[in-house]
Specification:
The chain contains 14 helices and five strands. The protein is an alpha/beta fold.
Length: 345
């Protein structure tokens, strides 16, 4: 199971129960609550995209149903309950997601899931409901879920998974205990990625992923082509060539959001290179485009371009023409950095 699974409604979700090293502190927080008899009926598992929030929620659900869980809330992986959890067929673990083709979780699936949560356990243990991404629930759906939290049934646990807790109603947040999953340190992310990829992690990949391990894992197969393409776009823009039509067209398509992320990571790396004393040790997307030009970078212009990138993303979420939005963005890039002498290869 990954952060991008897209099962619909309350469909079963198969579980990968391999523990993630950066989840240890959050597991210990809940293990302490269990030992003290203070496990809440509702949890909000929050954190940035790509840190394994769904993996954490699923592993917690499996441990709650496991016949022999460890003291730090890990499932044994071998009992009958764990086999059902791993296959995604445990009758007491329910997942709630947007239906296929929909962007939000509506009230009817929430009502159905809450009714199932209130039923007697089919395996004699806890009943679990995991909503992800919880912030996609409509207000009506959240209010329906609120009733379950206000009058919780014994041995039930409701887990809301979100990277945007502000999208949840304040009344819903107040009735749940927050569990924070932060990005791991870069070295921990790199070590985990090397184990998954079976090869060294490309320089700049972790930075592009914002330090999020699962996002880096998703980007890894296409990182080198992306790096080559965006370096070429940037070199074209910074070289003084007036025409931005072709590089803007090259950025179009399904990969446009990650290409904008690449530009944001490049600006961030450029700023750090200006500030960090031993700049030569920094790795970030597009680092090879910068040579002696970094000291000449106008920091105010760089921060203005970060704002422009956010504005471009907002426009692209609406009805604006992507080609025109990117052309305007690249023109601003040229104005912000091209005249400052940012060196290119």
């Amino acid at each position: 199971m990954t952060e991008s699974d897209d099962a619909g409604g309350s469909a079963a979700v198969s579980l990968d129960m391999e523990p993630l090293p950066w989840h240890g502190a959050a597991r210990e927080q809940l293990a302490t609550a269990v030992r003290n008899g203070r496990m809440p009926h509702g949890l909000i598992v929050r954190g940035p995209e790509g840190v394994g929030k769904e993996r954490f929620a699923g592993t917690l659900a499996a441990a709650s149903c496991c016949a022999r869980p460890s003291a730090d809330l890990l499932p044994c992986g071998e009992c009958a309950e764990c086999l059902l959890s791993r296959a995604g067929t445990h009758p007491d673990i329910h997942w709630l997601r947007p239906l296929e083709g929909k962007k939000s979780i509506q009230i009817d699936p929430v009502r159905d899931a809450c009714e199932r949560l209130a039923m007697t356990s089919l395996r004699g243990g806890r009943r679990m409901l995991i909503a992800s991404p919880a912030g996609t629930m409509t207000h009506a759906a959240q209010n329906a879920m609120l009733k379950t939290l206000e009058e919780p049934m014994p041995r039930t646990l409701l887990v809301l998974v979100t990277s945007r807790p502000s999208r949840l109603l304040a009344t819903l947040r107040s009735r749940c205990q927050a569990v924070e999953l932060a990005r791991p340190a870069e070295q921990a992310t790199t070590a985990w990625l090397e184990g998954k990829l079976g090869r060294p992690v490309p320089a700049g990949l972790v930075d592009l992923a914002g330090g999020a391990p699962f996002r880096a894992l998703d980007l890894a197969p296409r990182y080198e082509p992306l790096e080559a393409q965006m370096c070429a776009v940037l070199e074209h823009v910074l070289s003084g060539d007036v025409d931005v039509t072709r590089p803007a067209a090259d950025m179009q398509g399904e990969g446009l959001p990650v290409r904008l992320d690449w530009l944001e990571a490049w600006i961030g790396g450029m700023l750090r290179r200006q500030i960090v004393p031993d700049a030569t040790r920094l790795t970030f997307p597009g680092a090879r485009v910068l040579q002696r030009g970094a000291p000449a970078v106008n920091i105010s212009a760089a921060f203005r371009m970060l704002d422009r990138l956010r504005e471009a993303r907002r426009l692209l979420e609406g009805s604006a023409a992507p080609q025109l939005v990117v052309e305007a963005l690249l023109i601003d890039f040229k104005a912000a950095f091209g005249r400052k002498g940012a060196a290119v290869r």
